[in-house]
Amino acid sequence: MKRRSIILGAAAAAGLGWLLRPGERGADHAPYFTRLSGALDKAALAKPTLVVDRSRLLENVRTLVGHTKGRFDYRIVAKSLPSLPLLGTVMEASGSNRLMLFHQPFINQVARRFPRADVLLGKPMPVAAAQNFYRQFDGGGFDPRLQLRWLLDTPERVAQYDELARALGQDMQVCIELDVGLHRGGVRSDQQLVTMLDMMGQSRHLNFCGFMGYEPHVVKMPVGEPATYRDRAMSVYRHYVDVAKARLGQDWPADALLNAGGSPTYELYSEGQYPFNELAAGSCLVKPTDFDLPTLADHVAASYIATPVLKTLDTLEIPGIDLGAVQSLWDPNRARTFFTYGGYWKARPESPQGLVNNPLFGRSTNQEMLNGSRNIHLQPDDWVFLRPTQSEFVFLQFGDIAVYDKGSIVERWPVFAEETRFAPS
Ligand SMILES: Cc1ncc(COP(=O)(O)O)c(C=O)c1O
After folding, report:
1. Any residues with CB less than 8 A from the CB of 84 and at least 6 apart, and which?
2. Is residue 418 part of a domain?
3. Is the CB–ligand 1 distance for residue 388 below 6 Å?
4. pLDDT tens per residue, range 256-307
5. What average pLDDT does the structure give for the chain?
6. How far apart (Å, rounded) are the C-alpha atoms in residues 140 and 250?
7. Cα 218 to middle of ligand 1, angstroms
8. CA nearest 176: which of 193, 191, 189, 161?
9. Do 76 and 284 form a contact (C-beta atoms < 8 A)?
10. What is the pLDDT of residue 21?
């Protein structure tokens, strides 16, 4: 090949590469976030803060109730809304006193705060954790014999709980976890189910009260339609209900609690006949980014991390081999640099639009670098907003939630705290 052709070819490739550069995506805060920034300033907040927009939260509750009302009872997944006043708000707005809990200290806190709650465990607990619940339970209106439903997954666990119940002289409601296709535990055979039911039948203290079968996998399969996987999961669920009814006959509880669902799947049951009678969901009410799913298109984002900008640079500079200039030349969304107060949360930058992390500079939980285009005019002390990818752990990292409603921070909601009190045996 001639030298001239090589030079022309290289120039054409460079030109084509230039045309393929990322497009400009930056923009200053939309009015919603400008208003929210003003509200945070007015409330004298100046550190990373978890914000819940109460109007949007209530809009999501109305959406959920619109799908479930008259078809299924609704159980509030407490781990995804980990704050007593937040749960109280959702209980009032949805009219549900049913909660699903996943952490022993939080069960004690819920029992203390909501004496009328009906609590179902969302996962099986070591029997020692159950024992700790009873040790730390300090009475009040909540009656664990009737209002607390432990979740058991194996015959071994049934034996352990039976022993604890006998030792405490304590009647217990117990539900059985079913594996309806997720393969994260639970009953996997008729034999196992029958053994567990028989053991419960022989127990003086354990009362079988129903099933829990969780099926988030049905919307996460790489191929095929969610409806196909939903129907497969439901035929497994129906089968186990039939097996239990046949085994228990008259002893099948008239008010059996048959739980299914979660945020990703609950809207798949808005029509049709299914073997369960209550749906659990929590995350969809605040909608972190993991829940930006086609099945939740009618839910709105209602939670943000707000954090102050500490420093700005009109360039991108990376120490050592300085590839910052190259990065910003290639990508207009890396023209400017902003360092935020804290960072590296399970969260994605949301506003101003077009902010990105910088993998070359690296992440920081102390002062995180974000890059943005020249269309972003953030100054030190301005706010940056991120959306959590999930709520259950992220919400616990910022102290009291700042509750935003129509232009103001109207309340602060404490989040669940780990119990530090020593419980003597
Ligand atoms: C047993 C069970 N039910 C329901 C849920 C749904 O929770 P969410 O609606 O927050 O996704 C979960 C979440 O992990 C779960 O483990």
Report:
1. 109, 110, 113, 114, 413, 414, 416
2. no
3. no
4. 999 999 999 999 999 999 999 999 999 999 999 999 999 999 999 999 999 9
5. 94
6. 34
7. 13
8. 193
9. no
10. 83
Residues 229 and 109 both lie in one domain: yes
Q: How many domains does the chain have?
A: 2
Q: How confident is residue 317, by pLDDT bands cut at 50, 70 and 90? A: confident
Residue nearest to atom 4 of ligand 1 (CA): 262
The ligand 1 atom nearest the CA atom of 123: 1
One domain for residues 233 and 331: no
**Residue 319 is part of which domain span?**
25-50+301-413
* 387 contacts: CB under 8 Å, gap ≥ 6: 288, 289, 301, 303, 304, 305, 347, 348, 350
Q: Is 280 in the pocket of ligand 1 (CB under 6 A)?
A: yes
Q: For ligand 1, is residue 281 a contact (CB within 6 Å)?
A: yes
Are residues 39 and 157 part of one domain? Answer: no
pLDDT tens digits, 226-253 = 999 999 999 999 999 999 999 999 999 9
Select, from the ranges 89-98, 328-337, 357-366, the one with the highest average predicted confidence (pLDDT): 89-98
- Atom in ligand 1 nearest the alpha carbon of residue 261: 4
Q: Which atom of ligand 1 is nearest to the CA of 259?
A: 3
Give the closest residue (by CA) to ligand 1 atom 6.
Answer: 262
